[in-house]
Design a protein that fits this description.
The chain has two domains: 90 residues, Transcription Regulator spoIIAA, CATH 3.30.750; 116 residues, Pectate Lyase C-like (3 Solenoid). The protein is built from five helices and 16 strands. It is elongated and about 60 Å long.
Amino acid sequence: MESTTSIVQIKGIRDGLLATFMDVPWLEQRNALMIQINERAAFFQGARLAMDVGSQPLKVNDLVDLRDWLSERNITLWAVISESPTTETTAQLLGLATRISKPRPEETRHVHESVPSDSALFVSKTVRSGTRIEYPGTIVVFGDVNPGAEIVAEGNVIVWGRVRGVIHAGAKGDRSAFICALDLSANQLRIADESSAMLKPQKDPKPEIASINGEGKLQAELWHTGETTIRK
C-alpha cells in the first residue's frame, strides 16, 4: 500500500497550500489527504487549500463532500486543477478556481545543522500559509505568522507581530526556551514536548511570553511584567 505522503504532497504556494496527488483512484486520493490533515490538524487550521488531481474525473458530489469536510476543520477549498474536462467543469460550477500561481519552493526553509545553536535567524516579512521555517537557533520574525504557517526553532521564537499559525520552540528538547509575540492567537504553541491547545483570539491583545512554568506546564504571561494571564 502506498503511504499517504506518496499519494499526496503538500506544498506552499502564493495563495495558501497546494495538494498534488499521484494517479490513483479518487477514494485513495481523498483518504490520503484526510489522513494527513487529521495528523497535522493544527498546521492546516485556517488554511486555503488548492488541489491538483491530475486526470481524475470528479463530479459535483465528490467535491462538495470534500469541501464540506474541509470546512468543518476550518480549511477553505478554493481551487481544483485537473487535466479532466469533467473535473474542470465541476470546479467551475462550484465557483472554484481552476488556475493557480506556481508553487514557491523558497517558502520552505531548512537551515544546515552546522549553524551555531546560539545564533538567530531574522525573518523580515509576514510568514504566510504553507510556509515552514526551521532553524537550529532562535528565530525572530518581524511580521505576522499566518494560519497554516509553521515556525520550528531549537532555540527561542520572537514574533514582532500576530501569531495565528504553529510555533515550536526548543524543538530538540530545550525546556528553557520561550515564545514571545505581540499577539499570541496561535493555532498551537509548543515548547520542547509540551504543547498548548489552540489559543482564542484576544479582543485587546497585549504582548505575551510563553514558557514552561515550575509545574512543567506551558503557560503565557504578559511580556515584561510580572502579571500572569494564563491562556486556555
